Amino acid sequence: MPSDDQAPTLAASVPQPDGTPERLRRQIEFIIEVDQLKNVFRQSPLLAADRRENDAEHSWHLALMTLLLAEYADEPIDRSKVLAMVVLHDLVEIYAGDTFLYDTAASADQEERERAAADRLFAILPNDQRDHFRALWDEFEERASAEARFAKAMDRLQPLLLNYGNRGGTWRTPGVTDADVLARKSVIGDASAELWSYARTLIRTGADHGWVPRAEAGPRS
Amino acid sequence: MPSDDQAPTLAASVPQPDGTPERLRRQIEFIIEVDQLKNVFRQSPLLAADRRENDAEHSWHLALMTLLLAEYADEPIDRSKVLAMVVLHDLVEIYAGDTFLYDTAASADQEERERAAADRLFAILPNDQRDHFRALWDEFEERASAEARFAKAMDRLQPLLLNYGNRGGTWRTPGVTDADVLARKSVIGDASAELWSYARTLIRTGADHGWVPRAEAGPRS
């Protein structure tokens, strides 16, 4: 493994053939390096199999959802830009790891860890693509545009569907209540009133079924 | 499980809340149904972990590659359309299964199986989105546009990178030679001369290293 913090790790183990043009070589190294996203596991359980979801599958699911649900955006959005955002939004977790939405301790230094990871990962790319990807990721993180808000809404709605379909999933994490879920998911409403209405119905139905405890049912941990 | 061939299977096990609007309900059912793509496994081994790749991860990887490599397309392409194609190109395998590129027996009825799967799967969607997704998938399958040819090139280049990085991978399938790989991958050249030149270099380098047998080295099975 290289000691340089800016160097790729996985891609360094796959030397490119002599004569590969410099620009293409950097692009291919990035494509190889991000294979690791398939090995970053989230807390959310799949519906289709008895295992947790990984970030690559999750990102694909958001892209598919964007194709189908873009019509619900309350503001005009450039669908192509949303697709780019959801495809790359979790790449920093290759180096920074997945931070569970309901883990407040890990969330404390999440921003710093992810920014360092972005510096390191995107540096593999040619400079123009490095800057473009970084700008898209910053915009997503800051919810600084209609596209970023819609991408973030997809990112929050998708695990809600997995938890609802699994009759609980990560809703059953000790200490989590329906009020926590509502609070963490409210950013959906910044992108789409209709999808936020649907999301609230899912959470309410989940609480009705006992898949997530109600906030008033007991003390908060 | 429903007996109707046109009905969803997984989505039927996740009833939507009362009052969900009909159009949104069909879209959400589709989003749930396609969770199964994460459970369709390909022959290709990952680089980042010791297991085979699934279709959802693969589709995400193609979307990421499209973002980086679109500049190599020999014809003008609408990147947004390519992204949509690669996101949905393998959905039919949820019902039809993955057909290995070098399995000529399974390839015989592949087209028929996949068309039946497309009829069944896309019927879950609202009619306008059903028709749109089906048209995109048909266009991809027939390589009927510059976008379809580029999407297909991504689909062929990605496992080449995995095999090269794994010093063989599915290139080591009994009976497969470098000539077979070159023949199956030549559609890359229909989309991009530069990427096809790079792909040929990978295959030649793989043969030089003994990761794929040369066609002249022995009889073909």
TrEMBL record, chains A, B:
Q: Which reaction does it catalyse?
A: a 2'-deoxyribonucleoside 5'-phosphate + H2O = a 2'-deoxyribonucleoside + phosphate
Q: Where is the HD/PDEase domain?
A: 51-169
| Required cofactor names | Co(2+); Mn(2+)
Q: Which SMART domains match?
A: HDc
**Keyword tags:** Hydrolase, Metal-binding
Q: What is its EC number?
A: 3.1.3.89
EC class, as a word, reads hydrolase
Segments for region (Disordered) = 1-20
> How is this protein named in the record?
5'-deoxynucleotidase
The record, for SUPFAM superfamilies, names:
HD-domain/PDEase-like
Pfam family of this protein, just one? HD_3
Could you give the subunit structure recorded for this chain?
A: Homodimer.
Q: Would the keyword Metal-binding turn up in this protein's UniProt record?
A: yes
Among InterPro entries, the record links this protein to: HD/PDEase_dom (IPR003607), HD_domain (IPR006674), YfbR/HDDC2 (IPR039356)
